[in-house]
Amino acid sequence: MKQDTDVLLDEKRVFKPSEEILKLANIKDWEAEIEKGKDIEKYWAEKAEQFVWFKKPEKTLDESNKPFYKWFVNGKINMAYNAVDRWIDTDKRNQVAILYVNERGHEKKMTYYELYREVNKFANALKNLGVKKGDRVSTYLPMCTELIVTLLACTKIGAVHSVVYSGLSVGAFVERINDAEAKILITADGTFRRGKIIDLKKVSDEAILQCPTIETVVVVKHTGIPIEMSELSGREIFYETLIEGEPAECEAEEMDAEDPLFLLFTSGSTGKPKGVLHSTAGYMVGTATTLKNAFNIHDGDLWWCTGDIGWITGHSYLLYGPLLLGTTTLVYEGAPDYPDPGAWWKIVEKYGVTKLYTAPTAIRHLMRFGNKYTKIYNLSSLKVLGTVGEPINPEAWMWLYENVGKENCPIIDTWWQTETGMFMIAPLPVTPLKPGSATKALPGVDADVVDENGNSVPPGKGGMLVIKKPWPSMFRTLYKDEKKYVDNYWKDIPGCVYTAGDIARKDKDGYFWIQGRSDDVLKIAGHRIGTSEVESAFVSYPAVVEAAVIGKSDPIKGEVIKAFVILKEGYELKTKLIEDLSKHVRYELGPVAVLGQIKQVDSLPKTRSGKILRRVLRARDRGEDVGDISTLEE
Ligand code: 6R9
């Protein structure tokens, strides 16, 4: 949701931590910790000591080939070893690692030891399928324990995982698998959603026909609906058949600190989604440290991140961060309001969730039902709340603070990105909070708001949000596109500065107020989608000649799609065509592409070089001044 920061900068409310929060805090002095984090090498080197290394790094940071930074040079480490194996020899062995719950009330608990055994079995099975270090393995799975097992099994043997979000459809699926040149696909029969079962296998069957690199499809029986397995023997195999009889021990592959860990596709402002590549050690250090700091994680916590594993939020803070800290992580499969709008609060009460991390769009959705449901259930186990995905508007912040947190829980508004891998701007529980501000950069992170010359802008003035020093869990490149990595992120400002693509302001206290994207990336219900992707989906429909797409603000989703289409002669935008077009876009991109409005036009504003001026469409749509249109063709 785009923030009106002029109004927000006048925000006078400041929420100071209570005595109890101060007492429980791992870090009690926020400013002092930020000071400590200014020596980034020293700070992050210390944080790296929490892990078991096969070989300690020789150097913390190598800046010799900017922006291709290297962290923990020549260190040898393994993710799965540190997230799972390490706990087996401690009293966490029988602690629940994963608590899976679904909207039907079914639950499944996996202790660290059970997780260890299953990861090893699946890792051995993957090896038998010919998967080697560096090979790509894709998943198209619902939120389930097998997804977590798969990803950990990949990291155990050094395979690079590439998760395709189960809400994406055929078009997006094919593109991602082919770009990753994945060898193996793990999918499931279906997923539970709002009382229905969504058939994932059908999507995967259709998509896989266009994915020549896939050698084997592994199918998880998750919902139990009948499915058809392929006739081609050997190509499709059930997960349970595959791991049957596999040994429950598997040696962890010694990975170089910089070896790739995973690929995750995300939308940019131009072209197709790009594969964001994360590497091993830095990502581990960054995610574990920021989670521990921002949410004050300690033994006994029940951590619940409501984000899907298909997005970076799920990778960093549902799976890896929590397990690296030896926490219990809750995996929920279902919608927040099914079977009723008390679904989440019921889970908080039943299991005693202590830390809840969610999205502003979900909060705004649940706010509509008032405070009835948050009153029915006892939410007193909650200690810290957090949000991610888009700016949180002060109304949603206050609702969460008062009705869910009962004015006892700090709200950790975390600004970060797929590319950053970890939280970048966020408070600690002891930070004085202002509703709607993510406060300041975390210790060890150097963020700023600058003009096009890279100079810090004065308080209250808008500018580009940048990161001035490298951070350990930074992405290392865009898969197979180093040029785009450099051009898109590191070239806008002189010197080697990372531009995030967001506009922000700082107030007189140095607090950041993020305004939204400065490029053609939409955030629909917190999900990132590029206008160009949506436009290509439109023009791949026979009746459409040309399309331009902008974001339209929406009270719940933050933004939805408004499309302007030029139709072929003889076509008119009537109900049937609108329906067909909506269906087509959904088929190509999945339900994340929420259409707000489609409008038929005769022409689109373009530059002389033929680039669509979405800025002009946006301004006209909002009834604002269109600004400088000297480059407009006509
Ligand atoms: C983690 C994630 C990144 C973009 C980012 C920004 C927006 C995320 C935010 C936020 C304001 C926050 N964003 N968190 N804006 N306040 N707390 O969402 O990654 O999907 O890559 O999106 O999301 O615009 O640039 P990703």
TrEMBL record:
Residues 38-83 form the Acetyl-coenzyme A synthetase N-terminal domain. It comes from the Archaea. GO terms for molecular function: 3-hydroxypropionyl-CoA synthetase activity; acetate-CoA ligase activity; AMP binding; ATP binding. One of its GO terms (biological process) is carbon fixation by 3-hydroxypropionate cycle. InterPro entries: Ac_CoA_lig, ACAS_N, AMP-bd_C, AMP-bd_C_sf, AMP-binding_CS, AMP-dep_synth/lig_dom, ANL_N_sf. Its EC number is 6.2.1.1. It is an enzyme of class 6 (ligase). Keywords: ATP-binding, Ligase, Nucleotide-binding. Residues 93-476 form the AMP-dependent synthetase/ligase domain. Belongs to the ATP-dependent AMP-binding enzyme family. This is Acetate--CoA ligase. It comes from Methanobacterium lacus (strain AL-21).
